[in-house]
């Protein structure tokens, strides 16, 4: 997840699993003012502060890059400090955002853990976008399907592993001859008499409402809907009007 403002300054955010003290940096106000999508109620740490906390598990962390250098979470930084890849998780990344933020999901952490997206994010008008990489990493035939699964469990690949189930069948396309039919006039087999009344028992049920529409399309103007419960929902009131 990358949070980006108009001045093209990018910040990274991850989640701390264990409670740690708040380390407030001098540039906290600058981040909150310049990056509208960052939640201000976060623990702010710098790379220097991280080195002073041995064995920390990251929760709410914002790393401010110098000039155009980006600290890539999940690669060198995580390997250096033994951080957990929490940025791959949907809910921790989503709660770092302010209202109307945008969450881009490019990882597979929640898919592997069978996690669901927290609906509270929608309350803050946070939009969720899933991104699928089209990079093809490995192509194998059907007889190598076991090797494909074993290779996938090693988690060394970046991209898709494609297994060819069967070869593409080359078949010519047959065009059917055009058959023209003369138009036939449509006559209603049943028509209602406008001056008569039609009584429908259970008229507010699903079948009753559809039957009422069916009769009105065929000329009925006076319908009597008999019901024991009355108008219960706004849908009933709207349809009656």
UniProtKB/TrEMBL annotation:
InterPro entries given in the database record: PKS_KR, PKS_NRPS_Biosynth_Enz
Segments forming domain Ketoreductase (KR): 197-236
GO BP terms, alphabetized: fatty acid biosynthetic process
Superkingdom as given in the UniProt entry: Eukaryota
Gene Ontology molecular functions: fatty acid synthase activity
Protein name: KR and/or adh short domain containing protein
């Amino acid at each position: 997840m990358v949070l980006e403002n108009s001045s093209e300054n990018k910040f990274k955010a991850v989640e701390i699993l264990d409670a740690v003290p708040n380390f407030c940096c001098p540039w906290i106000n600058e981040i909150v003012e310049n990056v509208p999508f960052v939640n201000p109620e976060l623990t702010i740490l710098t790379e220097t502060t991280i080195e002073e906390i041995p064995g920390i598990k990251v929760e709410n962390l914002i790393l401010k890059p110098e000039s155009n250098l980006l600290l890539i979470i999940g690669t060198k930084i995580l390997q250096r400090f033994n951080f957990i890849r929490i940025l791959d998780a949907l809910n921790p990344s989503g709660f770092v955002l302010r209202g109307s933020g945008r969450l881009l999901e490019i990882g597979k952490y929640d898919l592997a853990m069978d996690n669901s997206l927290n609906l509270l994010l929608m309350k803050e008008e946070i939009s969720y976008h899933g991104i699928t990489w089209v990079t093809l990493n490995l192509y194998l035939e059907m007889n190598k399907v076991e090797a494909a699964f074993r290779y996938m469990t090693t988690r060394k690949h970046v991209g898709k592993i494609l297994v060819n189930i069967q070869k593409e069948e080359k078949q010519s396309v047959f065009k059917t001859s055009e058959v023209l039919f003369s138009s036939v006039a449509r006559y209603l087999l049943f028509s209602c008499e406008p001056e008569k009344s039609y009584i429908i028992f259970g008229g507010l049920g699903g079948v009753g409402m559809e039957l009422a529409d069916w009769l009105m399309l065929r000329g009925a103007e006076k319908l009597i809907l008999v019901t024991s419960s009355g108008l219960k929902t706004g849908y009933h009131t709207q349809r009656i009007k």
